[in-house]
Amino acid sequence: MILVTICDDRKHELKCFIEPSLNSQWSSRFGCVTTSSMNKLFVFLLPILLSTLFTKGQELMPVPDSTKKVKITIKGLFQARYVFSANKDVDLNGLHHTDGKAIYNDFDLKRVRLQFASKISDRTEVNLLLNLADFKSDPANKVLENAFISYRLNQYFHFKMGQFRPAFGLENMYPVDVIKSLDFSNQYTAFGNNGWQSFQIGASMFGDFKGSIPIKYEVSIVNGNNRNKALDNDNGKHFSSRVEFGLLQELNIKLGLNGGLGLVSGSKVYASGVDFSGVVPICKKWSLELETEAKQGNNHTLYYGLDTASRVGGVSGYQMRGLYFLPNLRYEIDYHRLSSLEFSCRYEYFDKDFKHTNNPRQTFTPMLSAEFLKSYNARIQIGINIDRYKRNVSGTTQYNNEQFVIQIQSRL
Description:
Layout: E1 2-7, E2 13-18, H1 24-29, H2 35-59, E3 71-85, E4 105-119, E5 124-131, E6 144-152, E7 158-164, H3 186-193, E8 200-209, E9 215-222, E10 238-248, E11 253-264, E12 267-281, E13 286-298, H4 300-305, E14 319-335, E15 338-351, E16 361-372, E17 378-389, E18 401-411
Antiparallel strand pairs: 1-2, 3-4, 3-18, 4-5, 5-6, 6-7, 7-8, 8-9, 9-10, 10-11, 11-12, 12-13, 13-14, 14-15, 15-16, 16-17, 17-18
């Protein structure tokens, strides 16, 4: 008699007894069967028996479902606008024309965004953001905006890598669809072109600390040559950081400190900024939201865009600075689908090269906004961008103008 013991993946023992020889009773009944032939039969049947037992053991094991915790969220943003320039010699990009061929009014798709967020585990998330409106022109280095993976170790340490907006400046901390004006400020565009704001490729570490004064921080390292580039163009990197203090939670008052150092084509560059925001309740349905920010840094994009003969000194001498103040008066009307009415007027001062050209740009942007369906899920905005320069320069974008905007927005 042979004892066969098999252990499956769950450590369950499966036993069977096999008698390879025949007794006399079986031999007399099957005279043609001998002990030798039965041993051969046993050797033949043993692999089949083992295969059957292993199969039974495997059937006891449950198949893990790797998709049980995966969540995919899809969101969208639609922004369409009609834009009209009061000066028919200044086009919609602000460029002054002397030939009378400026395009001064237009219907435009500003943003058509799709956002995908996949929570692949309780600690890891992947985000993608596409702007399909970029296909209206050359989509090279456009369309893809966010593309990053983030990992949460704990409350204090989160990590992110890919293409994202590094934490530098207040406007990088919220999406454009909840902004209290028609669009981001002029300084946001300039600091984005210089690799500090807007979408950049790199990595960051961030977290927050609870307490009587809550603190949020983020430290980033990026290529600094903007989004969707195949390679870094000069081996230099931008190091930036932001620390935000929650000074008074009842009024949502926050103070942000921003700083950055970088290396561009072998030259050292810097950027710094401070911002302040808060909400002042006036009465039951009225509130005043305040936001202000000031920044200064090297404009290396301007410096390296000049001919070598036109440059005066090094990149350290080409600096930009800006300041804006944005009050927003909000009335919670809650009338049928109309949730609120808002009136804001942003004032901005920006000089892209205050040490040389010294031709600052002042922009006033009054805007009336009607919010429907809460959280800006539907919004109609009417406003004016009023640009005033210290002096007009014919044939350039440094020319006074008024631009009227009617914008419709829907969040999906």
